[in-house]
Automatic annotation (TrEMBL):
The chain crosses the membrane at residues 7-27, 33-58, 79-100, 120-142, 149-170, 267-286, 306-325, 345-364, 370-393, 405-427. The keyword Membrane applies. This is Amino acid transporter transmembrane domain-containing protein. PANTHER family: AMINO ACID TRANSPORTER (PTHR22950), AMINO ACID TRANSPORTER PROTEIN (PTHR22950:SF702). It comes from Ciona savignyi (Pacific transparent sea squirt). Pfam families: Aa_trans. It is a multi-pass membrane protein. Its main location: membrane. InterPro entries: AA_transpt_TM (IPR013057).
Length: 429
């Protein structure tokens, strides 16, 4: 391989960082600060342990792809299971990115046009905008056969996340706490109308009625806490990218790749923690499932807020084709396992995937559901369950060895988390 240590860290960070950063402050509001840190340290640690297991398997089998490990362990069923989970995870990620477009773009356009209220024009309707962005920007980028040229956009999206975190920290000291008491809070800026944002209407009403408690809770378990751990799991998924990055690193040894993983997850953990902590300390119990919106409520025309929202929008739109790549690969494998490359299949599957994602984004009520449900199923499978199952099957050690026991324990933890989160989310409907 030719990739240096720092480039590998960079690539892995790009696989980790994503829309999850916008959902984590909400998770903190549901758990309280202490519980949030306990849970996220646990999730990050388990994610690293899973990478450790994957690297051991990689050494033993010489395989450098996640779904091929599934094949080594259980033949075709293993490979299909892995492909389905990868497909779901990536569809979930793409939906969460387009949700951000659906929420943010109408508000950004209104700010640019200097409009105080949504006059019901079609170009301020989030649903139309998502379709337009998909056809005009994402579709052309997703048609490419190779992913290489998208690499430089990853640098942009990482710097965008750093910038976002910086602004969140700075804003904590600018935005007053009981929000409505401040003169800067202008009701015209709410720019939320029933047409484009009925789901937000509900949130805003609950907003203006529930009082803004300006006290940080160290422990809080609200009725929506079940979304929190899936959101964290969703935020640390990078396990499908670990093996391809391992294949490209110079002087590849498991220890060196583990260092890359530790560094990447460590840096992302710091970024996530800062963004969620300062976001939470700005809005307390009013925190939304999509953090960026909060800043536009306060003052939509604020230049800094506008720049952040534009960079996040751009980063997100450029990340969709990147995420689409493995999703298309997984789906192609599921439907046409042994076909050579054909443009017909390539473009057909692309059109199907992008249409599916658009339909989901238009009809699913909130980004919270995406984080919760995908986080509880596909992310939990990819991070906690599959690496352990593969390890238990492939590794030659006896079942009573410490490594095997710890893998079995982690698998059970993953299964419990999955069932528990899903139950609470489904019952909550």
């Amino acid at each position: 391989g030719t990739a240096s240590f720092s480039i590998s860290v960079f690539n892995l960070m790009n696989a980790i960082l994503g829309s999850g950063i916008l959902g984590l402050a909400y998770a903190m509001a549901q758990l309280g600060i202490v519980l949030f840190f306990v849970c996220s340290i646990l999730v990050a640690f388990l994610a690293l342990y899973a990478i450790h297991l994957l690297l051991i398997l990689c050494e033993q089998t010489g395989v450098k792809a996640y779904e091929k490990l599934g094949f080594e362990a259980f033949g075709l069923p293993g490979r299909i299971t892995a492909a389905v989970c990868i497909l779901m995870q990536n569809i979930g990620a793409m939906c969460s990115y387009l949700f951000i477009v659906k929420y943010e773009l109408p508000n950004v356009l209104m700010t640019f046009m200097g409009m105080a209220n949504d006059d019901g024009s079609w170009y301020l309707n989030g649903d139309y905008l998502v379709v337009i962005v998909t056809v005009a920007i994402i579709l052309p980028l997703a048609t490419f056969k190779n992913i290489g040229f998208l690499g430089y956009t990853s640098g942009f999206s990482i710097s965008c996340m750093f910038f976002f975190t910086g602004v969140v920290i700075a804003k904590k000291f600018v935005i007053p706490c009981p929000l409505f008491d401040s003169p800067s809070f202008d009701h015209n800026n709410m720019s939320v109308t029933a047409e484009n944002n009925s789901h937000l209407q509900l949130e805003v009403n609950q907003f203006t009625t529930a009082e803004n408690k300006c006290v940080a809770k160290l422990f809080a378990l609200t009725d929506r806490w079940a979304y929190s751990i899936p959101t964290m799991t969703f935020s640390f998924v990078c396990h499908t990218a670990v093996l391809p990055i391992y294949a490209e690193i110079e002087r590849p040894t498991p220890a060196r790749m583990q260092k890359v993983a530790n560094t990447s997850i460590g840096l992302c953990f710091v970024l996530y923690s800062l963004a969620s902590l300062f976001g939470y300390l700005t809005f307390y119990n009013w925190m939304e499932a999509e953090m960026l919106l909060m800043y536009s409520y306060v003052n939509a025309s604020d230049v800094m807020t506008l720049i952040v929202r534009l960079t996040v929008l751009l980063a997100v739109v450029l990340t969709v084709p990147l995420t689409h790549f493995p999703a298309r690969k997984a789906l192609t494998f599921l439907i046409f396992p042994d076909r050579d490359f054909s443009w017909k299949i390539h473009l057909g599957i692309m059109t199907f995937l992008l249409s599916l994602i658009n339909v989901l984004v238009i009809f699913v009520p909130s980004i919270r559901e995406v984080f919760g449900i995908i986080g509880a199923t596909a992310s939990t499978m990819l991070v906690f369950i599959l690496p352990c199952v593969f390890f238990l099957k492939i590794d030659p050690r006896p079942m009573k060895s410490a490594k095997k026991i710890s893998a079995a324990v982690m698998m059970c933890v993953g299964l419990c988390l999955m069932l528990e989160s899903l139950t609470v989310i489904v019952v909550g409907y």
